[in-house]
Write a structure and sequence with these properties.
The protein has 274 residues and is α/β, with parallel strands linked by helices. It folds into two domains: 231 residues, 3-Layer(aba) Sandwich (Rossmann fold), CATH 3.40.50; 37 residues, no CATH class. The protein is built from nine helices and seven strands, in the order αβαβαβαβαβαβαααβ. A seven-stranded parallel β-sheet has the order 3-2-1-4-5-6-7, with helices on both faces. Strand 2, helix 3 and strand 3 form a beta-alpha-beta unit. Helix 4 packs parallel to helix 5, helix 5 packs parallel to helix 6 and helix 7 crosses helix 8. The termini are far apart. The structure holds nicotinamide-adenine-dinucleotide (NAD). The site of nicotinamide-adenine-dinucleotide has 29 residues, from helix 2, helix 5 and helix 7.
Length: 274
């Protein structure tokens, strides 16, 4: 098919036009930043995650009108495999076959292993790791059938290195990297890529909660937790931004990302260069 000059310009400006993307955990933080980046490149979006229904509807409406794309919302609880299958079916029904899957939803709990609640371990493994497996399984056949797919798993610097008191989170994120590499190998000749992004600290509600918890636990000010606890690991001493993670995700999803697969890409100000 030959494109007209206008069509070529439109594709270049909005390289993901006509693509359908599911972004899990996109009612907040990094997921929302990714949804904004993908919508800005022309992709139709399935939002997912928890939150105030009126606020989610406002987000949905703003994304759609600002970027001229379709945006729908799935309230699926990703700790439940059957809800993940329902989310994929809903996406297909309202927007069409899924081209892009961003596994971003995640939760955290910080405690020494002896005190780590078993229910928290189970929940973190379910949301941060198993949900990616179930979602990939639900959408991969249609990607392979159509010869195009982009899977981006939001892991963490904690997928590459550990910190004390985060046993479940670190185990789940290391698992995400293993899953990423395996899917990349299985799909390498099928037009599908699967990569992981490994952010260091990014300023989001998840981190704000950690700052508040640590300040309380160690009798520190929020400022002290930021400079003396969190950002000591990050050599550039700056939080990464949701816009940076969104832009990298959009690049991986573009045609120019076609040869990048099975990678774990740190966005961590040098943390994992240690
Ligand atoms: P956040 O708390 O702002 O957002 C998490 C999102 O996941 C929300 O939309 C929430 O509703 C959703 N969610 C949680 N449990 C869910 C469930 N059971 N079903 C469906 N949705 C659920 O957190 P964030 O900081 O934006 O984190 C997003 C991802 O980035 C996570 O996987 C996190 O581990 C990872 N990450 C964050 C940082 C950081 O510094 N913020 C660093 C590295 C990795």
């Amino acid at each position: 098919m030959t494109l007209t000059a206008d069509q070529t310009a439109a594709v270049l400006q909005r390289p993901l036009a006509g693509r359908v993307a599911i972004v899990t955990g996109s009612t907040s933080g990094i997921g929302l930043g990714i949804a904004e980046s993908l919508a800005g490149q022309g992709a139709d979006i399935i939002l997912n995650g928890f939150g105030d229904p009126a606020e989610i509807e406002r987000t949905r409406d703003t994304l759609a009108s600002l970027h001229g794309v379709q945006v729908a919302y799935s309230p699926a609880d990703l700790s439940m495999p059957e809800k993940i299958a329902e989310m994929a079916a809903f996406a297909r029904d309202v927007l069409g076959p899924i081209d892009i899957l961003v596994n971003n939803a995640g939760i955290q709990h910080v405690a020494p292993i002896a005190e780590f609640p078993t229910a928290k371990w189970d929940a973190i493994l379910a949301v941060n790791l198993s949900s990616a497996f179930h979602a990939i399984k639900a959408v991969l056949p249609e990607m392979v059938e159509r010869g195009y797919g982009r899977i981006v798993n939001i892991a963490s610097a904690h997928g590459l290195v550990a910190s004390p008191f985060k046993s479940a989170y670190v185990a789940a994120k290391h698992g995400v990297l293993g899953l990423t590499k395996t899917i990349a190998l299985e799909t390498a000749r099928q037009g599908v890529t699967c990569n992981a992004i490994c952010p260091g600290y990014v300023w989001t509600p998840l981190v704000e909660k950690q700052i508040a918890d640590q300040a309380k636990a160690h009798n520190l000010t929020a400022e002290q937790v930021i400079t003396d606890v969190l950002l000591t690991a990050q050599p550039n001493r700056k939080f990464a931004t949701v816009e940076e993670i969104g832009a990298l995700t959009a690049f991986l999803c573009s045609e120019h990302g076609a040869s990048i697969t099975g990678a774990a890409l740190p966005v961590d100000g040098g943390w994992t260069a240690h």
